[in-house]
């Protein structure tokens, strides 16, 4: 058994992990108790990393050797690496020769390592001579970048995680931290426990698990953030709560901002934001830090946390700047517990920005538009020049490909056919581009289906390099096992392409990529050392940091210049900012309405966000049935008042349509939303939620609906909001098929079933799990649900039965063609003598079977049912004890278990929570379910039951 320290590949918290491995198989993972980001804690996603990286899973989902597709629409066939790289280099070189360097584009990922990013950036801008290189970090953090640069002068979050323990007021805007950054939320819980007087304000259109902790919840209307922040500043000015001395000494432009906010009264903001004026005033008082402070005394420090609710907007830069203005106006920056702290969405979005891996940036936070910066980079790289014109950003790049302007696309470690907005345009771009390379670890992504050339890359547990988290902390990523099959490191693939292109573009000249070493780690370190040198004298100077220091001293924050003994925890404590005059800047921006407000045609506001236990497009988390326990199937969440008005009931299917596309999804009542608002998780792409349109085209998941409109300053698209209409879907023929399958077959069966989804107007396909890991290995199952106007051809049902092993002689069957009923069930005799349901298929007009799903998934005995299992009835012949929805996926504890136990608990909410956890142990592993447990406890104390607080 081997152990290696590394870093989690999910969100920007940057948790340290210890990977356990045996030979070529990762067998376990636990939090690193010495890593300063998490001190041993992990969320549900991080704590199950080993289950998504085990060899049986790997061999089913991984891309293991290069594959070339001779023609679009044909199957790809394996080729060797030399042939693959030579083909790629020849096609890119030919495109550059015919159409110029801007006819190619590179689209990368915030999940790449810094070393991967650096080589790709130098390849595009230094060798090819194009700035058409952007990443999915554009969808994540570019508004935060633009906001920081506009106000503070540099893309540098000035706060750190330790500030959570010092803050007296925590202002959370546009972030469901409890689900998106669970380990940060654990630290918030710790801070609140240590300091019950700390005020927490949450601004969010939905009453999330994060909002449940708030002392003041501000359910503002989508897109109204700038008005809220300007109104808070208006109150601060009116009441004399701003720090005029700090403003005079350390800032510029405040007079212009005053002119903008003078009309932003709480009363006017109330109309725009949908909030009570007194709540806006209270938020301003708490934020200013003057609550309970004697005149002239030190302010109570305020820390703000924010994420995609601010960033993913056509006014994202203005939202970020308006929030930072509040910190500057009150001097709430640079001190323990104070500052504007953007929470990074991806594990290395920060590292990508550090190396300049965006279309408008150069290494070490240099600006593309600055000729001195371009000259510095050209000198560092040893080239005559770097291109001056900003490249195409994410949305622009795919629009350019759809328009025929970009001819060749190289996509690495990201899935734009799921994650980008306006999927109709994205998929047209992938189809029209003359040559598409997808460099990917997983063969199952939607984008992989569009690739002319597929290149297998390494992933978590196999890579070596560095990442930077939200608090500017650089951590090592280490390999625990060898790469499977022919997979190569991302930087190795980029380097191999660069070396081939150099022969064509720079014949006879010295290489721009002199990264050599006896091992992959030595080469990666050489890349990092070159990156380190580009930072000399810059705001993120790390010239004093080495890999040896990271090994000896652990993860370190930047800046870490030569001669330093440690990184800097907080920035701007001296009030000096990286601007020409050393002053922070107020950059006034008035509130602008949504780019796509609700209308008579599209009356609902759709917002998107994360699920607690899933990550992005689910190419990794979606392989594990356990992580579907909390949210088992896709759903469109709506306020309960809106359902009857549309003649909908919970579970009904609905068409959800925007100006760009349409999907079908089940509806779910959710009173955490305001009437007129709907919500759907961002993870549900075409790989898991599909079907076909009335025009016969495959449906593309939730991002078929979202808008490509973007912020003019950051070019970040408004993924968070779209105007939609919701109509009941009349699809009387329904299908439910599910089965337990051997672990080495389950994922392959899911992929095969998912490939059938376009044959129905509506379908979704997900894995599910059985017994909790604590009771032994969890069983793996697959579920397919579908609906249609009429019964599909029998061949489709036959294929589904074959994949679920329902075509054998031991299967019970019932068929009634006249009533369009087709039902099948396979039983299994267990070692303890029980007979359980092992697989089922229920199809027909009005076909029901929720109770049969319960029998199968809970592995309840069925020997007394006989052929009653095949009856097309809405109700079970006897009561079936459903265990309910899983709340704690670590220990398989359901809401039913919790409700029953809470009936026996007494005392204060804290005492009842302790009793609950003592009895069921829920929330004692990763802690991701603790916010929901607290809501259920509060509901029990209030005597309202749990149905009103089931917000998932």
UniProtKB/TrEMBL annotation:
**Cofactor(s) the protein needs:** [4Fe-4S] cluster; Mo-bis(molybdopterin guanine dinucleotide)
Classification via Gene3D superfamilies: 2.40.40.20, 3.40.50.740, ADC-like domains (2.20.25.90), BFD-like [2Fe-2S]-binding domain (1.10.10.1100), Dimethylsulfoxide Reductase, domain 2 (3.40.228.10)
- Share an example GO biological-process annotation for this protein: cellular respiration
| Domain 4Fe-4S Mo/W bis-MGD-type, first and last residues per copy | 1-57
Record protein name field: Molybdopterin oxidoreductase
Could you list this entry's UniProt keywords, alphabetically sorted.
Answer: 4Fe-4S, Iron, Iron-sulfur, Metal-binding, Molybdenum, Nitrate assimilation, Oxidoreductase
- Recorded superkingdom: Bacteria
**Record family assignment:** Belongs to the prokaryotic molybdopterin-containing oxidoreductase family. NasA/NapA/NarB subfamily.
Q: Name one GO molecular function term.
A: metal ion binding
Provide a GO CC annotation, any one.
membrane
PANTHER family referenced in this protein's UniProt entry, alphabetically: NADPH-FE(3+) OXIDOREDUCTASE SUBUNIT ALPHA (PTHR43105:SF9), RESPIRATORY NITRATE REDUCTASE (PTHR43105)
Q: Which residues form the signal peptide?
A: none
| Organism from which the protein derives | Acidovorax ebreus (strain TPSY) (Diaphorobacter sp. (strain TPSY))
One Pfam family this sequence matches: Molybdop_Fe4S4
Coiled coil, from the record: none
């Amino acid at each position: 058994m081997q152990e290696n320290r590394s870093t989690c590949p999910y969100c920007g918290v940057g948790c340290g992990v210890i990977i356990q491995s045996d030979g070529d198989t990762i067998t376990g993972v636990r939090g690193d108790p010495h890593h300063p980001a998490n001190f041993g804690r992990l969320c549900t996603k991080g704590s199950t990393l080993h289950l998504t990286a085990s060899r049986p899973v790997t061999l089913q989902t991984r891309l293991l050797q290069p594959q070339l597709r001779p023609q679009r629409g044909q199957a790809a066939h394996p080729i060797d690496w030399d042939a693959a790289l030579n083909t790629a280099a020849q096609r890119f070189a030919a495109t550059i020769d015919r159409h110029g360097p801007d006819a190619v584009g590179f689209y990368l990922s915030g999940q790449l390592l810094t070393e991967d990013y650096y080589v790709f950036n130098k390849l595009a801008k230094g060798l090819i001579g194009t700035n058409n290189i952007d990443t999915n970090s554009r969808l994540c953090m570019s508004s935060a970048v633009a906001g920081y640069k506009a106000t503070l002068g540099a893309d540098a979050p000035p706060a750190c995680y330790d500030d959570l323990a010092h803050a007296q007021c925590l202002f959370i805007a546009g972030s469901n931290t409890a689900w998106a950054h669970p380990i940060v939320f654990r630290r918030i819980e710790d801070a609140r426990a240590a300091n019950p007087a700390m005020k927490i304000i949450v601004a969010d259109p939905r009453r999330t698990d994060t909002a449940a902790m708030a002392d003041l919840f501000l359910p503002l209307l989508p897109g109204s953030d700038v008005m809220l922040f300007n109104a808070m500043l208006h109150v601060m000015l009116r009441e004399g709560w701003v720090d005029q001395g700090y403003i005079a000494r350390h800032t510029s432009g405040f007079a212009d901002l005053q002119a903008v906010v003078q009309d932003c009264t709480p009363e006017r903001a109330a109309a725009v934001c949908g909030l009570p004026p007194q709540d806006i005033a209270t938020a301003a008082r708490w934020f200013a830090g003057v609550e309970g402070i004697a005149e002239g005394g030190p302010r109570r420090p305020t820390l703000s946390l924010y994420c995609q609710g601010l960033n993913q907007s056509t006014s994202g830069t203005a939202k970020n700047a308006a929030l930072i203005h509040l910190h500057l106006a009150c001097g709430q920056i640079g001190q323990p517990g104070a500052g504007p702290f953007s929470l990074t969405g991806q594990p290395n979005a920060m590292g990508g920005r550090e190396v300049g891996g965006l279309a408008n940036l150069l290494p070490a936070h240099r600006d593309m538009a600055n000729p001195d910066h371009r000259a510095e980079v050209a000198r560092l790289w040893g080239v005559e020049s770097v291109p001056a014109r900003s490249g195409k950003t994410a949305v622009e790049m795919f629009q350019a490909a759809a328009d025929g302007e970009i001819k060749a696309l190289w996509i690495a470690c990201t899935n734009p056919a799921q994650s980008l907005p306006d999927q109709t345009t994205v998929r047209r771009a992938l189809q029209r581009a003359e040559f598409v390379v997808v460099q990917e670890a997983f063969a199952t992504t939607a984008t992989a289906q569009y690739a002319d050339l597929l290149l297998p890359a390494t992933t978590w547990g196999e890579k070596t390099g560095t990442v930077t988290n939200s608090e500017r902390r650089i951590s090592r990523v280490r390999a625990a096992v060898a790469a499977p099959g022919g997979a190569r490191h991302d930087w190795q693939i980029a380097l191999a392409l660069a070396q081939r292109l150099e022969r064509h573009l720079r014949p006879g000249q010295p290489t721009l990529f002199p990264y050599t070493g006896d091992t992959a780690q030595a080469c990666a370190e050489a890349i990092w050392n070159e990156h380190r040198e580009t930072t000399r004298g810059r705001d993120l100077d790390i010239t004093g940091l080495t890999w040896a220091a990271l090994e000896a001293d652990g993860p370190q924050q930047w800046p870490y210049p030569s001669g330093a003994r440690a990184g800097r925890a907080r920035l701007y404590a001296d009030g000096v900012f990286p601007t020409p005059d050393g002053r922070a800047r107020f950059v006034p921006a008035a509130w602008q309405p949504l780019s796509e407000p609700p209308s008579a045609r599209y009356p609902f506001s759709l917002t998107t966000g994360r699920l607690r236990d899933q990550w992005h497009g689910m190419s990794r988390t979606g392989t594990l049935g356990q992580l579907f326990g909390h949210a088992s199937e896709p759903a469109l969440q709506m306020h309960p008042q809106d359902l009857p008005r549309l003649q909908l009931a919970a579970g009904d299917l609905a068409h959800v349509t925007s100006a760009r596309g349409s999907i079908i999804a089940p509806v779910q009542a959710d009173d955490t939303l305001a009437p007129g608002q709907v919500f759907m998780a961002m993870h549900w792409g075409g790989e898991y939620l599909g079907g076909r349109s009335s025009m016969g085209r495959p449906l593309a998941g939730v991002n078929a609906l979202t808008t490509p409109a973007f912020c003019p300053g950051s070019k970040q698209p408004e993924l968070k909001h779209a105007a939609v209409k919701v109509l009941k879907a009349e699809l009387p023929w329904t299908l439910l098929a599910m089965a337990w399958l051997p672990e080495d077959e389950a994922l392959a069966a899911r992929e095969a079933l998912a490939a059938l989804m376009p044959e129905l107007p509506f379908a979704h396909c997900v894995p599910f799990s059985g017994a909790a890991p604590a009771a032994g290995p969890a069983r793996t199952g697959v579920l397919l649900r579908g609906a249609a106007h009429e019964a599909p051809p029998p061949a489709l049902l036959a294929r589904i039965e074959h994949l679920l092993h329902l075509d054998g002689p031991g299967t019970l069957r019932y068929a009634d063609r006249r009533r369009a009923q087709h039902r099948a069930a396979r039983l299994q005799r267990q070692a303890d003598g029980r007979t359980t349901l092992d697989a089922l298929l229920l199809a027909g007009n009005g076909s029901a079977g929720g109770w049969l799903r319960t029998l199968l998934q809970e592995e309840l005995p069925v020997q007394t049912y006989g052929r009653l299992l095949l009856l097309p009835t809405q109700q079970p012949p006897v009561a079936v004890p459903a265990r309910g929805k899983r709340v704690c996926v670590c220990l398989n504890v359901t809401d039913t278990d919790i409700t029953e136990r809470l009936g026996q608990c007494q005392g204060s909410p804290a005492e009842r929570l302790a009793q609950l956890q003592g009895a069921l142990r829920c929330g004692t592993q990763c802690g991701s379910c603790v916010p929901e447990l607290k809501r259920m406890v509060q509901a029990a104390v209030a005597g309202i039951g749990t149905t009103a607080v089931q917000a998932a």
